[in-house]
Amino acid sequence: MNEGLAILKYTDKTFLVYSASFCGTDQYALGMLTAAATADPMQPASWQKSATPVFAPNPAGRAYSTGHNSFFKSANGQEG
Questions:
Q1: Residue 19: inside a domain, yes or no?
Q2: With the CA atoms of 42, 44, 47 and 53 taken in that order, what torsion angle do they form, in degrees rounded to the nearest 10?
Q3: Which structural domain, as residue segments, surrounds residue 28?
Q4: 65 within a domain of the structure (yes/no)
Q5: Adjacent-strand bridge partners of 30
Q6: In-domain check, residue 9
Q7: Which one, of 54, 47, 70, lies nearest residue 21 by Cα?
Q8: Model pTM score
Q9: Tens digit of each residue's pLDDT (9 = 90 or more) over 43-58
Q10: Per the domain annotation, does 13 fall within a domain?
Q11: Residues 28-46: pLDDT tens digits?
Q12: Residue pair 19/47 in contact by the 8 Å Cβ criterion
């Protein structure tokens, strides 16, 4: 299942992060596509897909599931 996308434009790149699995399982993860900021986002060839999820469960780090994604700036604008 691919849904719940969030887009972030940062410097010279556009990042599109999306839900990469059903949220009712322990395998829920977030995938990511990356394109140059100047690329045509309507052209599939503009995007590169990350080979593995960029956010995923990590039981060794006591992170058992990934939540829905979004991007925001800190109150002072210095942190992403």
A1: yes
A2: 120
A3: 3-59
A4: no
A5: 19, 55
A6: yes
A7: 54
A8: 0.78
A9: 999 999 999 988 888 8
A10: yes
A11: 888 999 999 999 999 999 9
A12: no
